[in-house]
Amino acid sequence: MSGRACPQALYTSASRTLEGPGFGVYAHSADWPAEVGRTRKALGALVGFHPADGEAYGVLSRDAGRVLYRAVAARADGFGRPGNYLVHLLWDEGGRLGVRELLALRRAGRFLDALPDDATPTADLPPLRVPVAGRAAPALTPDEVDALTPPLAGLLATLAAGSGSCALPVRTASGREVAEVLFAVLPRALTSGVSLHTGTREDVGDTAPVTVRLTDAPARTATAAHDTERARTLLEAASKGELAPDELADLRRLDAWLFADAWAEQDAAGLSADQVASVLESSAAPRWLGRGGNAAAALDLAADSPAVETALRAAVDRWPAVAELVRGRVLAALLDEVFDGSAGPAELAVDVAGVGQADLCAALAGEVRRGRRIARLDRAAGLLVEQALALGVDLPLFRLTGQTWELALLATRREVVGDALLAQWRSSGGWTAEHGELLGHLLVADPGWLARLGDAVPVSALPPALRWAALRMDVAGVEELAAAVATGAAAGRGWALREVVFGSELPAGDVDQVLGRRLELLLVDDGWPRELAQSFARSRGGDDPPRRRRRRGD
Predict the structure, then answer these.
(1) Cα 195 vs. chain centroid, distance in angstroms?
(2) What pLDDT does residue 21 have?
(3) Sequence-separated (6 or more) residues with CB below 8 Å from residue 389
């Protein structure tokens, strides 16, 4: 027979014991644990029994294992003394056996009712092999479901508390063994730490967190409505041949098995966090997440509920449709944050969805190509633009934002943005009003853009752009832009003097300062012979160039 080989011990009240006269262990396996003991003093209440009780049995936790036991009244000993009894004890190292095995051993008659006639005291009693108990759905009538619901609800309430004692009747009015039914209906993992004893017993050193007592007059304990609902639903399912999987180790997972389909018909707003987690663990998760705002609500709840976070991560891993849905919702929220400045998703939601920087950058470029524009190109949005270009994403900069000035500043300050803008400018294939507006902002940000853009700017487009930029510059900026024009590809047309210096509309004194420092260069650009320009400039003298500041930012 397969199963666990359990050391056993036989305690008898007869006088024939290994320790000599008196009560004690009559026989035991060689590896019976010393910490459990072999004397009445060591075993204590575990071997206490009144023959008038007829029978006592149970399973309890001790140190690193579990003890399964049964005590029965025995016939008079060889001296004719009545009132004797026999206790049959089994040791399960590691504590893998539980209430089901105890009840199965008792049901199969594998606990001894008496010592064999040829029995002799021994320290080499063979271990008893105990198989893992089978499980079958009990056939229950509606009346039996009604009778078993209250005791099962009480047991579920104790399991929910995580510790305590629960009293159960031995039998229902119809004669059904209560423990046999309840421990068949409940998942094994949920009851793995539960001990069971018959009747009222003294302290047997049980360390199990939850203790069940079988008694003819169990204490009545008020149970919550949800425990009663759990109990009835479990029993009704069992009556139809459906048993909750044995691996369900907590009540939330049990609830998922029991109620997830019903909860999946409700929206997240009507469910608790645990109920949402239960739905996410069920096969209804893809359908439920795809309805209304359930996906967004689940992501929000995950930030505050570890149960929802765990269940949502598992759903993302389990179903590609869920992964795509969650990823899409998180990406949409991130894009709303970038484009519209709305509140973005929590960091946890981004992690659950598995959205990386490359995903966001690619999505950003796709939205821009579809016509969406960033409302406010702030520092965070600018960093994302820079990251996208650094990753090689084809991001259309001319359609990126309506904030042309912020784009010009970003392109001026961030090399990768400037390089990309220049490349897109040269490959655009034409001149538009957008080019002209952006050119003016670029020149205000840095006159060096004039040389950088070079022949990508039509000559005819330069005068209005130069005047527009000059109007927004201070004295230093006007001087720098004028010098750039006079020494660049557009030199010799007089634009430095006419469009920039005079077009700036600076006060006369400021214009005189620029002329005093740059007159020769400006006159040459305006077509004067160099010698004449030099002579005229020397006659006027010159000043040190001022520090440059922009007059306006728009």
Answers:
(1) 34
(2) 47
(3) 395, 416, 417, 420
How far apart CA 507 and CA 518 sit, in angstroms, is 17
Q: Determine the Cα–Cα distance for residues 13 and 127; give it in Å rounded to an integer.
A: 22
- In whole numbers, what is the pLDDT of the chain averaged over residues? 88
**Full domain range(s) for residue 153:** 142-193+210-239
pLDDT digits (tens, 9 = 90+) for 57-69: 999 998 889 999 9
According to DSSP, residue 269 is labeled: G
pLDDT at 1: 43
**Would you state the pLDDT for residue 222?**
66
Greatest alpha-carbon pair distance for the chain in Å reads 147
Q: Which pLDDT does position 17 carry in this prediction?
A: 45
**How many domains is the chain built from?**
4
Residue pLDDT, tens place only, 231-251: 999 999 999 999 999 999 989
Same-domain pairing of 156 and 215: yes
Per-residue 3-state assignment (H helix, E strand, C coil) for 198-217: ECCCCCCCCCCCEEEEEECC
Pair type for strands 55-62 and 210-215: unpaired
Is 266 found in the same domain as 168?
Answer: no
Sign, Cα dihedral of 46, 50, 51, 57: negative
Do 229 and 147 fall within a single domain? Answer: yes
Q: To which residue do tokens 């048993």 refer?
A: 243
Nearest in space to 329 (alpha carbons), one of 350, 302, 301: 350
Rounded Cα–Cα distance for residues 113 and 454 (Å): 106
| E strands present in 209-259 | 210-215
Residue 368 inside a domain? The answer is no
Structure token digits, residue 301: 């709840």
User: 377 near 403, Cβ under 8 Å?
Assistant: yes
Q: Which two tokens stand for residue 495?
A: 């634009």
pLDDT in tens, 358-398: 999 999 999 999 999 999 999 999 999 999 999 999 999 99
Q: Is there a domain that residue 394 lies in? A: no
Average pLDDT in the 214-241 region?
85
pLDDT at 76 over 50: yes
Q: Give yes or no: residues 25 and 115 share one domain.
A: yes
> Is the Cβ–Cβ distance between 282 and 312 less than 8 Å?
no
Cβ neighbours, 10 Å, residue 93 = 15
- pLDDT value of residue 225: 87
- Contacts of 421-426 with C-beta under 8 Å, sequence gap 24+, read 421/397, 422/452, 422/453, 422/456, 424/396, 424/397, 424/398, 425/453, 425/456, 426/456
